[in-house]
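Hey, resending since the last one bounced:
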Amino acid sequence: MRRPRFAVLVGLVGITLAGAPVHAQPGRMMGMGRGMGMTHDSALATQMGVIHELVMGHDRITRTVTNLADGVRTVTESDDPRLAQLIRAHVAAMDQRVRAGSGPGLPNESPALRTIFRNKDKIQTTSDTTAKGVLVVQTSSDPATVGALQQHAADVSDLVQRGMAAMHDGMLKGLGRHHRRAVSNHRLRCASTRG
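The structure tokens again:
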């Protein structure tokens, strides 16, 4: 089914929002270390769990990105029915968040993602549910917004390709120097629990 939308974020947009596995209570502080916690609503807390599951299953997700002159076309899918459903659910949830203009305001948001939330009224989106996921086309007549859409699509593709390593790299870019050490320590702890 085809659903034109105004101001929708491209598939898996919020993956870059997550910095670590999140198991928080609505309205509680989440984060890794002093000064990094932020209060979130229950919908975002739920979405962070979905994001984490998608990142952990990154090796079972495929993604194709085509840069257009005025935007981007993405297809994000999985042969795993659970992941396919999570992809669809995540896109729908982020669609609502962007249309409402309620950016989460996490410290690890990329500049591209902040531009997309800020310029939501300059973005036109259509999406199609596929048998294994979702196809999203986003366009804009504003060159800066087009650049942000394309950069964010590349960021999400990196997450699909590299999983948690890309998530941690994104966090390091988005955080101030005094928080980078906490993130690096978290990354080492994650690596040691996998080994």
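The two ends are 44 Å apart (CA to CA).

Sorry for the duplicate.
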